[in-house]
Amino acid sequence: MLTRIKIENYRGFRSYRLDGLTAVNLLVGKNNSGKSALLESVHLLASGGDPTVLVNAASRRGEVVAGGREESPLVDISHFFYGHEISPNSRFSLSGDNALPPVTVTAVPLGDVKPHPELFEDLRTGRPAFAMKIQSGRLGSKSGRPLILSEAGVLLVDPRRPLRRYLGEERREGPPIVFITPDSVAPESLGVMWNQVLRDKQEREVRKAMQILEPDLEDIVFQTAEPMYRSYAGRPGVLVSFEGDQRRVPLGSTGDGMRRLLALSISLIHAKGGYLFIDEIDTGFHYSIMAQMWELVVRTAKESNIQVFATTHSSDCVRGLGILCKRSPDLRTDISAHKIERNLDKDVPFTGADVLDAVEQDIEIR
């Protein structure tokens, strides 16, 4: 488990540290304080420098540039570097403790790598200018493969071939990692994780978690037969049933809170022995169930050896964490909150006991 992290030249942080990390870590702070950026950085560190983490993070933020008429949008890597600028010899680094290898991302002159000219022969939106190397000492990581960039820092790939070919199609080794965005988990990923729930016969645990919102929930079913039923508007085709009702209804008709809770409960099962990242953990949840939601997260993390990193803007979310600390003293040492401020070079950490004191004395820690 990570207990401290240091980042250098990543996004809006010239240098920053997170200290006093525990099993469950809540990042709090004002808008644009860098909470999501720190969440991404820890995700990249835990992944051993997997380039798909960078690509997915940029895509979520809309850090892309339009391609040509027959080209897909291209990812702009420059925003990951401090000051939103990239040139040969630009770099950022992420490091932690407990034997987790550091990750260093460096821009290098094009002459230092051997690009494949055929990848760019039909590309109209840019030409190779330099390369980016991701280095990590983790065994089995995808790092080390140079990625070719344009002068503006745009990741260049042959539009005739899938992006994953250049990022590495092999499966990443190491502990499981799940990232939940404010829009929840991608439908295809949720389906894959549900298959693991079925293999491990853990449907009961998911159902119990979902009953936090709907005590009468009886069953959950993922549709897999016909594509048209599998998803609607990008969401998986999930049906639920309730006691006393013979019908099964789409999960989406029960509200976003149920969809969010399903993603959270399945992710906790899938992340056993690894890491779970949750951006805006309170999304979709009413203030009245915050303490129950936190108990699900903290107890599962403790029992399944998961390290959780989450962000929030919500005072209700922090209050729910404090209520849990009061109800369950045995969990206090597994909980910490970290106030993020850009004008400092490190976080302001709060233990579980500190969170409880702040809530009881109505002290603002966000």
Question: Which properties best describe this structure?
Answer:
366 residues, globular, 10 helices, Rossmann fold, six-stranded antiparallel beta sheet, alpha+beta, 28% helix
Structure, explained:
This protein has helices at residues 35-46, 51-61, 164-167, 187-199, 203-210, 227-230, 256-270, 290-304, 315-327, 352-360, and strands at 5-10, 13-18, 24-28, 64-65, 74-75, 91-96, 103-109, 130-136, 147-149, 177-180, 217-222, 231-232, 235-236, 238-242, 248-250, 275-278, 307-312, 335-339, 348-351. It has two domains: 63-167, no CATH class; 177-360, Rossmann fold (3-Layer(aba) Sandwich), CATH 3.40.50. The two termini are 25 Å apart. The chain has 366 residues and is an alpha+beta fold. A hairpin with an 8-residue loop joins β4 (64-65) and β5. The model is unreliable at 226-235 (pLDDT under 50). Strands 2-1-6-7-8-9 form a six-stranded antiparallel sheet, covered by helices on one side. A six-stranded mixed sheet has the order 10-16-17-3-18-19, with helices on both faces. 28% of the residues lie in helices and 23% in strands. The radius of gyration is 22 Å and the shape is globular.
Largest sheet: 6 strands, antiparallel
Low-confidence parts, pLDDT < 50 over ≥5 residues?
226-235
Helix count, per DSSP?
10
Strand order of the largest sheet: 2-1-6-7-8-9
The CATH class name of the largest domain reads Alpha Beta
Beta-strand proportion: 15-25%
Record field, number of beta strands: 19
Q: Give the count of structural domains.
A: 2
CATH fold label of the largest domain: Rossmann fold
Radius of gyration: 22 Å
Averaged pLDDT: 86
Backbone structural class = alpha+beta
Q: Output the helix-strand order.
A: EEEHHEEEEEEHEHHEHEEEEHEHEHEEH
CATH architecture field of the largest domain: 3-Layer(aba) Sandwich
Outline type: globular
What level of helicity do the residues show? 25-40%
